[in-house]
# Entry
Amino acid sequence: MKLITALLGRLGRQTLLIMAVIGRIALFAAATVTHLLRPPFYAREFGHALIQIGWLSLPVVGMTALFTGGALALQIYAGGARFNAETVVPSIVAIGLTRELGPVLGGLMVAARVASSIAAEIGTMKVTEQIDALTTLSTNPMKYLTLPRVLAATLAVPLLVGVGDAIGIMGGFLVGVGRLDFGAGTYLHNTIDFLETWDVASGMIKGAVFGFIVALMGCYYGMNSGRGAQGVGRATKAAVVAASVLILASNYILTELFFSA
Amino acid sequence: MIELRNVHKAFGANKVLQGVDLTIPTGTSMVIIGGSGTGKSVALKCVLGLIRHDSGDILLDGKDVTRGDRDAFLARFGMLFQGGALFDSLPVWQNVAFRLLRGSLKRPRDEAREIAIEKLRRVGLTPEQADKFPAELSGGMQKRVGLARAICAEPEIIFFDEPTTGLDPIMAGVINDLIREIVTEMGATAMTITHDMTSVRAIADNVAMLHDGVIKWTGPVADMDNSGDPYLDQFIHGRATGPIEAVR
# Structure
């Protein structure tokens, strides 16, 4: 009985801790969004964040999409052969990439690259009193550090997803034509014919949500970083883990919203 | 004038400030001394609103610092942080002119740069340092840049957090002299926290000794050596024995 009580107690404490973190993150997100509506807006910081998050993530997202598109073409071809349905390769590659794999893998790659970098940067700023210095210089850290990054990621990741989709489809095309003996014209024709605008748009909406999550987690854990190198290391790890889990969870919810019958 | 009246602050069970009473008259230089972990930095951060005190009053010119326009309040302050707290991503001149490049004190970029270079010169740095990044400077130079940033917008009140920590004795002397000169020529009110007794004698008009969360002694720096206070005596002479327990 004592053991059960202890276990339940521990479970209860953990649940309360998790709920408290969720509450704090929700308040942090609300504070970030409300700063969007109030001046000043630091355009220079926003531009810098746009380059760091969007432009500099393009190589890693592009490479991920290229290889995923190629591998997907091979898998669908092999699987489709069981049902004599090899011809569906171009359309399934396109639909799979634009609706699901493009945004999710792109989001996860951005989470690994950007959430970690934001958390480490802001965490180090906190440890070295740069956040306090910002405040004493009459500059709100939420406005100067968080809002530009969150806004830049929310706008940049959908574009990354769009570019990633195109590169991924090209990866499938290269494998389809080079390895699976599809005609180039037929492959492209099948891709375009079966792809709908909503397939692409839904993936880009997912990208915007994932971008928001990635930057928000980076900023939240950075701002709440513990002391010293260990504190910053923990904040960085927590930001990547939280961003990745939230991307996968929100992907399911968005898929339910967009595509459930 | 800055007044702290019965200020309390605790972090969980750790009661750091337990009724701090302190007055810093306008245009004077107050140095707060005390052992590590006695709450000197906490007291300073409470005045600036970086940490919210639990109870008591902190007044600036008779007005509660927690009320009113926060930007206008902070615009009256300059602060030199212990580690400099320079922004790594910005060149030196943009660190110095940070306040002049944005917000209510915003100036044209060229003018802000000129002012920054003039302030850098005031703290003994050449214009060539202006376009470097903080990581390219030595510790002493970073401290000077921090000092230039603290005085760039000509604040009425300047806070110095351990201004000589980590510097060699000569550079510490240079920083002490600069602080004294700048505070005097600007007519600013200064509040410094330090362990360095050389700094205390160079910078202070008045001294306050913080121990066990309260001010144990306060008075003019000239009276410090003859205070008769056992806590202050032990601290300024660096004795291992006395009323302050030293953890060995």
